[in-house]
Amino acid sequence: MSRLKALVFGAVAAGVAADSSTRETLPAGGKAAGTITFLPLRSGRCGEGDKAYYGYVEPAVNSDPDKFFILLVGGGICWSMATCQDNYDRAWLSMDSFFKEKLGLNDTVIGELKNGTSMPLADFMHEGIRPGYLPADSSHPLAGRRGIYLPTCTGDFLLGRHTLTYNDELVVRHYGALNMGITLNMLKNTLPDLKEIALLGGSGGGISAAAWMDTVVDKWKDAKVNVLVDSGFLMFPGSDMFDWWDQTVTWGTGPAMDKENRLQDTPAPILSWTEPMLAISESRIRVAYLACDDDGTVSSDRKRMRLDGAQVGDTLRHLKDQFCLLVHLRDDSPANQAYSYFAECESHYISRDNFPQVANIAGTITAKTFVENFLAGNAPDPGNPTKSAFWFDNHDKSICPAKTTTTPEPQKKKEDNTQEVNGGAVATPTWPLLCGAAWLALLAPAALTIDR
User: Fold this and answer.
1) Which residues of 236-249 are buried (b: 16+ CB within 10 A; e: fewer)?
2) Nearest to 201 by CA among 249, 165, 179, 233
């Protein structure tokens, strides 16, 4: 059986096995209209070992019962004793820290939320909380849908599946892939026949959305899937940080992965670009990137990570790499499936911050119009429906820096890139190589499918 591979920033991860036997489901009968209710993931865990939670969103009016959304909340990553104890990154390793330090909630409210008390979505979307781009009123393109709000509390872009001990004393549960797998299985158990799914994330959640979107497409065979990646350019294929992450981080899925301390039967998107693939290969999926060229949070994170030993490259190279990815997305993706809005600004998580004016591009649609039309299933610019790229500055593939890659031996590559579920291989994943001559391989028909 053949399977079309997906996406310019995607990965293959077939059949998430986590927690499927328990038949965990969404709340029976729903919750109060217009609320968000936090519930524990039955076997999910955060980095410090406490329970992981998800927020279940019940719309004011359930007008689209066959449609659903999943919002992945951004978060920092850690990969060492120093980074996992850092004041900033540590807050992304437990639910209490997330609620208190990232959302600004007090202990009383946190206790009520963790006990299952429903909060009106309008209150949760209060300006002081800033939880993300949730449909709090009827003007939102996802209004009328039920949804899941999934915080990151594992320090791993929702990609980890490891229990790691740093410096023989600090134990961190990088269980992001476990938590995401439980979430998707729970949704599949409850709503197996969805017709449309919106998968969106900002910051680190944007990276997570890009990595997991192929899995969502694979689990719902008949659903249209719209994926919004907001400010997810901290790490992406073709960047120095991706190279460093792939070769260094032990909870990752590259050559440095710690196989001894990996959770079994917990697949994750394996991120590799050793086998260039067609950028978009499923007509049911659409993807949109939204970002500022000089994202202030990304810039500060890169500086901080560089001080902690990460090889993230220089700022000019990073800008060129961003444009290189976007050029290939524009030029090599099938029509009406890949879109981008790239503004000259420093804003971060644009949709969460109510689309600030500085994130708009002169002479074209606003960032808000771009997102609203995309998530509604329409062309971003109704006046120019064939336009896919909205940028403050135009470029072609000459912006792509020359990149030298080392091709592994065939047998070694197979061993490194094979997952096991119940002892059997389930996927040979890839991220596309976006810069250099290897991109030409995308045009080969043989690159469109793999056998399963």
Assistant:
1) bbbbbbbbbbbebb
2) 233
Q: State how far the Cα of 120 lies from the Cα of 32, in Å rounded to an integer.
A: 9
Tell me how far apart the alpha carbons of residues 314 and 309 are, in angstroms, rounded to a whole number. Answer: 14
Question: Cβ(24)–Cβ(189) under 8 Å?
Answer: yes
Of the candidates 422, 421, 423, 417, which has an alpha carbon nearest to the alpha carbon of residue 450?
417
> What single-letter amino acid sits at 452?
R
- Confidence (pTM): 0.85
Question: Cβ of 384: how many Cβ atoms within 10 Å?
Answer: 12
Identify the three-state secondary structure at position 294.
coil
Distances (CA, A) of 58 to 34, 89, 320: 6, 31, 42
Query: For residues 236 and 211, what is the distance between their CA atoms, to the nearest angstrom?
Result: 10
178-237 pLDDT, tens digit per residue, is 999 999 999 999 999 999 999 999 999 999 999 999 899 999 999 999 999 999 999 887
Cβ neighbours of residue 274 closer than 8 Å, sequence gap 6 or more: 407, 408, 413, 417, 430, 433
- The span from the CA of 24 to the CA of 136, in Å, is 27
Instruction: Count, in order, helices (H) and strands (E) of the chain.
Output: 12, 16
DSSP 255-278: TT--STTBPTT--------SS---
**Three-state secondary structure call for residue 234:** coil
User: What three-state secondary structure class fits 285?
Assistant: strand
Can you give the C-alpha Rg of the chain in angstroms? 20
Q: What is the Cα 249 distance to its own chain's centre?
A: 18
d(CA 176, CA 156): 6
